[in-house]
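fwd from M.: "can u put these together and see what the complex looks like"

so here's what she sent:
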Amino acid sequence: MTLSFKGYLLLNGFLLFFISFNNVFNFNLIDLTLILSILLYSIKWNESEWLVPLLLFAWGIFQDILLGMNLGYSGSIFLFFYVLSQITSINGLFEQQKIKFIIFIIALLILFIFKNLFIYFNYQLNYLSVGELSAFLIMVLLYPPLNLIIIYSQKKYEEIR
Amino acid sequence: MSILIPIGLIIFSLIFYFGRFDNSNLSNELRAKSINTVYSITSIVSSPINLIKNGLESIYEIQNIYEENQRFKEMQLLDSASFQEMVSMKLKIAQYESLLNASDDIEYDFRTSRIVGDFSNNFNGTLIVNSGKEENIKLDMPVSGSNGIIGRISHVGERLSRVLLISNINSRIPVIISEDGYHGMLVGQGRENPTIEYVEHIEKISIGDLVTTSGKGGIFPPFQLIGQVVGKKSNEIEISIFENIATLSHVKLLNYKLIKEN
């Protein structure tokens, strides 16, 4: 997807709107950061896009300040799924939804393992729990419908253009 | 080539995150200054959704108004009996202190503040409250709800402050368990109930024992309720905190200080 100036404005507006959801919704089992990452992963970005990663990094810092997380947490997650989207696109796997889904599950698993290992070694805390596993499963279940919505929206956008 | 930019940014973010550069004084200052701006922007953007959410919650509350009323009537009876008990206990304690010639070295008042942001659903659980430097709020002030301690102030901005909750994995609070006064350290566990570690004579702790602050470290005043024991393992105790943070709308910021001897 090639972004015009209006596209960048829309993207920034959408990211601001979505991050602001954190003020309103406070679900135990649904992580809004990961939902936004699903959306970023589902979009087919232009391969020569260089401004979008910088924007994602900046919005990640913005969200970290809002949530009180250590700076770099949200940005690294957003960029991780953005890079995955680019890699699937470069290797011609973007249209193959089943393979994309498997890659997504593996990436999510890596993220969860990494996060729990970090917490374990830094805080001597076993953070893995039923709540964490439930959150993981919910993200896996949310991927197909959100992916469909993004694919449909992108096709409509391309048709209009 | 263009994929190197996001990969480079990921590496930079990870260095930023693991390097914990935001624990420095400068970073804390910048963070405290920026929270006002960040929160103001996001609260404006989310205000329509907030209105809808509050509207739906009001409808739900109206539906349950009869049951709430019955519950309040029952609580009133209990409260008056509890109040009598509390008054007589306070009088007894004052008498014992006078007999023992014990010094009263603790005093604190408090300020009530409204919760404007609830981010308690992750391992870095925090709240944002509507008080800051303008209202003389200071770093490390203890924060409590109506039923017990919930955390302490971790960042102070001009008009907003951040509360580090008990459930936050960075939270460590010295506590006392049961009337026998066993000391331990309350450690936040994120989503799960907090646990108490470094407890001597763990075998003497029973399920249902009360957990209060010990006052060690000088941040929390002593004997403030936190929760009660709900589980025991070989080297740690699981507690359930009394306060239900999800239902809180206001908190007390305790202006706790030790009386200096003349």
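replying to her w this: DSSP finds six helices and no strands in chain A.
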